[in-house]
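Write out this protein's structure.
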Amino acid sequence: PPHNLGETIDAAVKIIDEPECSIDDLCKIVKGPDFPTGAIIMGKNSAKQAYKTGQGKVVVRAVTEIEETNKGRQQIIVTEIPYQVNKARLIEKMADLVKEKRIEGISEIRDESNRKGMRIVIELKKDANAQIILNRLYKHTQMQESISMIMLAIVDGRPRILTLREILDEYLKHQKEVVTRRTIYDKKKAEARAHILEGYRIALDNIDEIIKIIRSSYNDAKERLMERFGLSEIQAQAILDMQLRRLQGLEKEKIENEYQELLKKIAYYTQLLEDEHMLMGVVKTELLEIKNKWGDKRRTKIKADETEIDEEDLIEEENVCITLTHLGYIKR
């Protein structure tokens, strides 16, 4: 299931900072799934089993409130529904239950949702018990859903069910690989550019001789430059492609500055590839940047578990008269 970006990044950072941390430590940070549609997870520890074993389930309930209308009646307002529940089908199911008289006490169901958010209004009949009706709706409709948690991922080309710790470890392993490969690429790029700049520096120091060689050459300028100054083919070609304005003093300074900057970068990339602790520091910094840029507050609240709905919660309390006939029938 989807999770909160900020929480998962905090848990990954916790592993970087404290490699020995346990799943219980991580569960204090990642408290449970976080659904884009909000709603409420019933049970503070319901997700823990899935985090420890890789499989489990959570009970997700719609967010509702009971309001008094100005006619003295009550109405149930639904503002958030469980993840992947279709609102139109949910309303249809409620209407069917009312038609079939499986739920009594509802006079009207209206969808007042707009661009600001969801709002389903369930108007109740006079003297109807709102809490009993709400409990029945939880039982018979998708206003309460059990959502499976299967922490399934492809690891080394094979599907595996992972614990919370394992899934975060695999993610960090992937991040480490990404940063390593990127650093290798950046280093190669910097080295290639520095190689050309080294050629430019030689050219600037021997400019008169180079011009002389180029002028006196017929079709072998590149080979003669390589032989005379010990240049590589790439460097010799770069010198031949060089514009005359690059031979001015200002351009010479620019080339020198760029060369010194590249040497610093190459030294940094080399150190990064040799020092794993430093590399994971880069992973951590980048993860925290993502959190600051994209992280948002948890949308799905987590409530302490009210014990499972008891059958008796669905029946309204009232005084009844029971009769037993001679033939053994009981009437209420």
